[in-house]
Each structure stands twice: as structure tokens, then as C-alpha cells.
Amino acid sequence: MAFKKDTVLGTMVFTVTLCLLCSFMLTGTAELLKERKLAKKRDELKRYVLVAADVDLGGNDFRTIFEKSVTPMLVELDTGVVSTDDNVMNFDDRMAAINPDTSRKPKKDTAKIKSRADQVRVFKVFDDNGKLASVVVPIYGKGLWSMIYGFVAVKPDMNTIVNVVIYEHGETPGIGDFLNDPEWTAKFQGKQLFDEKGKVALKVVKGGAKEGDIHGVDAVSGATMTGRGVQRSIKFWFGNEGFQTFFNKLKASEV
Amino acid sequence: MSTNTAATREILVSPIFTNNPVAMQVLGVCSALAVSNSLQTALVMTIAVTFVLVFSNMIISMIRRLIPNSVRIIAQMTVIATLVIIVDMVLQDVAYELSRQLSVFVGLIITNCIIMGRAEAFAMKNPPHLAIVDALGNAMGYGVILLGVAFVRELLGSGTLFGHEILKTVENGGWYLANEMFKLPPSAFFLIGLMIWTINVIQRKRG
């Protein structure tokens, strides 16, 4: 055989060929699974929206329920202008948030997100009679180690929280992962986002919220920064650089 | 031909018991500790390891005459790593929840000494069909230990097998007080230690 494997050239040729072959195998597999992965991501999103909106699935498939009672739409945050088209579910919010053409630096970055997308995907959830039941909006912000991503569902009074779901975070395992605990997020149910003056008043209270506190949610000891991260995310996203304009429009029933 | 099949049989059977990679060579113990708290994860892990081991042995054996001596470990590593990443991607696609439970341990198959060891010790010197048989034998040896440990840990730790209730625990209104220690990794140490001991005693009796 002409191929002398133990020469320098032979070794080089071998390693380069092997690396190329292996990388083809990897990219091939990734490409094959890509469509299914995206579909799975979309499904997961739908499921979390329904959990946030506290919709009773009643044994039905969540996809059919989603099709029936949820309308996804894009909101221009600064103006509150809403647009809907068939492609809303494919809107890549992470990409939009880092692309300089579709995002900007927040003036007051309470949630430490560095750049905020101009457009955000929100969901209107309707009940069986076709009446608006809640509006589900995404929030995210920095905790101790990581970005915490979640959905908040708000009642049509644009003040009372239906439910909160946190679907992605990288906080300390065993300490910060109470975020995934439905029992903890259920503490948000029925709380009010804003005080009488219309400022964001929701707080994660260390040492436990007082009985009857309509703005306070219990913090978890040992995870101060994680709780603070959630509070600051809420403060940012329901403030004037977040959904305030959109909410005001909704209240005035212009959307 | 008959000696040939006998030799092949020996290659397949000996790693399951007499020369078990986990119990006799004490290889690949790290993952055996981590994923053996339920039968389901142990089974998926065994399948993943079997896939990687069989294909890595086969590929490396096929190209063994082409691998330059100076980079042979790196070449083996590349093949193994590629296969592991493929397994990881497929697993995330078909069983997302399980892949989350197995977390880093699927990726850590790359560093599993059994696979590296078989590639270097066997696949580099033998033709593909024998390499595949050897891989199957070793994967089964790994699987037997893993599933054995997982069986005990899941039964005593949670009172279930494959998630089905066998011993009704006190929490669910039964009589069995679950031994929490078996849910934690250290218990796998004791169990594997006991297994190594038993196998050694039997081996010695046989002479």
C-alpha cells in the first residue's frame, strides 16, 4: 500500500480525514434532528403558556387547547402596537434580543439583561365563551448565576396575576431550583403587580410576606439573589421599558 | 471452525462474569454510581454505552491498519467522542426527560474507561467481527452490574421497579419504610463492593 501511515505526512492526512468524517457525521445528525427539535421547542412553549395561564386541560391534548384558546402576537414594546401573522410561533425571541438591529440597550437595566428586543411575543388566552381570560407575557432577568426565563399571566384588569411559570434557569441546584416548584410559583396567584400609583409593587419578601399582603411573595432563605432576580425581572418587564405601554393600551381596549 | 466459534463464545461470555469490566477491572465505576438509582436510567445508560462501545470498536477495528501509532489514542478518542455526541443528540430527541435525568453522564461516556480500554486493548489488534463480539460482551458485563445495582437501589430506596410499586412505602400508606440511603450515590459503592467480593469468592472456589 502506498499509504505510509507513520510518516509525518501520513499522520497529517489521517487526522484531517478522520476529523472531517467525524464532523460530517455530527453535522448530519444535527441536521436530521433539527426540524423535530424546533417542533419540540414550540410544543414546550405552548405547554408553558398554558400552565402560566392556568388553563384546565381537562384531559385534552395541550396542542388542540392551545390552537383553540390562545392567540400569539408580537408587541412593539415602545409603542404598544400589536401585530399577528402565521409566523409568530417561529419568532426567535432570544435572537431578537441580541441582534443590534432589533434590540436596544435599556435605559434603566434593573433586570440586567443588557439588551432588550424591540418586539416581544405575548399570548392572549380566551375562555370557552371567547372572552379574554388572561394575557401571558414573557419575562427574564439575571439571578445569581444565570438568566431566569419565565411567563407571567395577568388577568384582564392588567394587575392581578393568574400564575407564574419559570421554565429555564441555571441557578444553584438544590438551593435556587425552587423556581421550578409549582408550589412556590403558586404563591404569585392572585397577587397584584401595581400599587395605586401604577408603579410595580410586587416584591419577593425575605422572611415571608405578611398575611394579606397583596404585593408580597415569600422568598426562600439561602437563595436571596435568585428571589431578587425574579423580583427585578418583574419590576423591569412591567415597568415603562417593558409592557407598560402595551398594558395601558389593553386597558383602554385599543388592542 | 469449532475452535473458532469456541473462541468467539469465550470473547462474548468472559466479560459478563469472569472478567467483568466493572467488577474485575474496576473500570467505568463513576457512571455506575451516578445513574444506578433507578432501573430506567440504568437501562438507558446501558443501551447508550452498548451503542457507543459496539460502533467504536467496529470503526476502530476497521481502520486499525490506517491509524498512525503516534496519534492512535487521539484517533480513538475522536471516534468515541463523535459517537457519544450522536447518542446524546438522539437521546434528547427521543427521550428528553430521561436525557435530563442522565444529564452530564451521557457526555461522560467519552471518558468511560471501558470503551477506551476495549478500543486500545482489543479493537486495535483484532478484525471487526471479533471486535463487535467483544464490545457486546463488555457492554453486557457493564449492563449486568449497572442493572443489578439499580435493581437493589430502586427496590430498597423507593420501593419500586421501573417505576411500578412493589413495596408499598409508608408515605403512600403502606408498610415499607424506604431506606433513603439507597437513593444516594454512596450506596452504589457498597453494592458494587459486595458484588466484587461475591464474584471474587466464587472465582477463587472455582480455582
TrEMBL record, chain A:
Compartments reported by the entry: Cell membrane
Membrane-protein topology: Single-pass membrane protein
Catalyses which reaction(s): a ubiquinone + n Na(+)(in) + NADH + H(+) = a ubiquinol + n Na(+)(out) + NAD(+)
InterPro entries: FMN-bd, NqrC
Modified residues (FMN phosphoryl threonine): 224
Cofactor: FMN
Family the entry assigns: Belongs to the NqrC family.
Subunit structure: Composed of six subunits; NqrA, NqrB, NqrC, NqrD, NqrE and NqrF.
Stated name of the protein: Na(+)-translocating NADH-quinone reductase subunit C
Gene: nqrC
Automatic annotation (TrEMBL), chain B:
Gene designation: nqrD
Protein role: NQR complex catalyzes the reduction of ubiquinone-1 to ubiquinol by two successive reactions, coupled with the transport of Na(+) ions from the cytoplasm to the periplasm. NqrA to NqrE are probably involved in the second step, the conversion of ubisemiquinone to ubiquinol.
Known partners and oligomeric status: Composed of six subunits; NqrA, NqrB, NqrC, NqrD, NqrE and NqrF.
HAMAP family: NqrD (MF_00428)
Listed name of the protein: Na(+)-translocating NADH-quinone reductase subunit D
Broad EC category: translocase
GO cellular component: endomembrane system; plasma membrane
Subcellular location: Cell membrane; Endomembrane system
